[in-house]
Design goal:
The complex is a heterodimer of chains A (86) and B (593). Chain A has helices at 2-36, 51-81, and strands at residues 45-46, 49-50. Helix content of chain A is 77%, strand content 5%. Chain B is built from 23 helices and 2 strands. In chain B, helix 11 packs across helix 20 and helix 20 packs parallel to helix 22. Chain B starts with a helix and ends in an 11-residue tail after the last helix. Classes of the chains: A mainly alpha (86), B mainly alpha (593). Chains A and B meet through helix 1, strand 2 and helix 2 of A and helix 5, helix 10, helix 11 and helix 13 of B.
Chain lengths: 86, 593
Amino acid sequence: MADDKTNAAAYWKANVRLIFGCLAVWAFVSYGCAILFRPLLAGILVGGTDLGFWFAQQGSILTFIVLIFFYAWRMNKLDEKFGLGE
Amino acid sequence: MSQFAINLLFVGASFALYIGIAIWARAGSTKDFYVAGGGVHPITNGMATAADWMSAASFISMAGLLASGGYANSSFLMGWTGGYVILAMLLAPYLRKFGKFTVPDFIGDRFYSNTARFVAIVCLIVASVTYVIGQMTGAGVAFSRFLEVSNTWGIWIAALIVFLYAVFGGMKGITYTQVAQYVVLIIAYTIPAVFIAMQLTGNPIPMFGMFSTHTESGVPLLAKLDEVVNALGFQDYTADVDNKLNMVLFTLSLMVGTAGLPHVIIRFFTVPKVADARWSAGWALVFIALLYLTAPAVGSMARLNLITTIYPEMSGQVENYEEALSNPIFYEDRPEWFRTWEDTGLITHNDLNNDGRIQFYNNAADFSDLGWEGNELEVNNDILVLANPEIANLPGWVIGLIAAGGIAAALSTAAGLLLAISSAISHDLIKTMINPKISEKGEMLAARISMGGAILLATYLGLNPPGFAAQTVALAFGIAGASLFPALMMGIFSKRMNSKGAIAGMLAGLVSTLLYIFTYLGWLFIPGTNMLANTPDNWILGISPLSFGAVGAMINFAVAFAVSSVTEEPPQEIQDLVESVRYPKGAGVAVDH
């Protein structure tokens, strides 16, 4: 029982760490690159405009998709590793 | 065949398909009715979620919003997609593991309180009803434009179709019609966009075309667009915004609002396993992105198309813009699509200086040296997508497709919302709170009657839109983000959160958000009752009422933790419940209770 509990706690900790990592990227591309840091990226040109504009209208959406699939894939590995999958 | 006959054929064929699905997918149990039996494949659910999510506003209005606002309106793109990242990581898998049917189910059980359940029911109903009115009016507009019936008839026809598959099929009928509706709407949206991208840039993929070279001028498309709008006195299309705090908060409000909207969350209760809920969120975003990555291309290209139609000399390589803009087209020479849409009143021309030409520019700019006396052209943003096939000279069947697509977008979202409303009434209010002894058959009947009632209410409100109908973004996203999202998240991630904390937090988030909105938009949105004018100077720290949902969510978290920390721990069985939703093992399919 105690082992089960430690195992479950370790699984949850790994999940929370993974979420933090993914949400850091999520915030970086949308709030960072697309909004707050846009003036800093103004020098990098993409198809007639700047990189920040690209992130605001396409880049962040593409990153979001990659993030969700990455998370789903990593969580499947964690489910298996800790024996907590279905 | 006349255009009317073609439109009728496309819309009629799509309706026949939806009704066919309704007959095939009848709900036999409450589990069928609420969660489609719990056996929907993650990719199928992703597609249904995309249709559930993309409303009449996404289909019709989004490209117009981007065309008129340029970069500043990117918040809609990021907000309405980024919400799926937090949904996939913070809510969907755990709520699927919890394994019941509705959002108030989780809030009521997790916070062991019928008060919490009731607050959740009220928030759900207000948010969903506000949202559904826009779908009914959107369907009415699409019907009246393409099928030459009155708005009123359009809304009644839409209500009848939804009634057929939602009342008999419940979530099961809705799921498979949403899949069909997604296919119809994405084809309808993409085909005209591909043609326009080809015409303007030679690149058939709109999202790439937007960032490539404008064929006629040899300049990158977005650079050309900036030059052109600039010459007419408008702000640059790609211009940055001054108030970054407001843009960040607005985007965040849309994201947490998206994640907290019950009609989206319940879609993830229909997949067989916890892992499927995660994959399904990814697939949903893929299907949503197909439209959301195309919309900015449609917006920018349609704006350029419109301007170069009025000022033909501006379309090629331009040395001197002042010269190029001095010869707008004569009103007599306006294109055919212009005439069609004038009939609807969505394009209006008023020849102020009586020169027979159309002057289209920003009134803030001064062109009096050219003899211009003001902007003469008003174009409603919503026509950009609907008029796209005509602007690009596409064949009549593409117009028929757009009609079917716009109606599909409105109906699919309406059905999802109506299911969220009716299950909150029949399951949470009647079965859990009022009469727990009700039989399976009785609950099924209650679910169908609530669905019928919800459809009648939505139809009535669609026919007589109240003042708050236009406030979907403020009201639905504000409430979902400030009240439901934090409660759901804390219920999963904090074992220590007790019922007093959660209830205080939900109410604090809800009340603060409503107060802020009503201060600027009027009490209950009644015109003239606002205490401060709704202008950026009056906003606290420049935060618009539409951006306040994120602040309301923070208030919710802060109050909940403060109250919870000075009151008792939740009982052991609740802490065990939180443990169990965190681990996929032992989920099984959604259980009856």
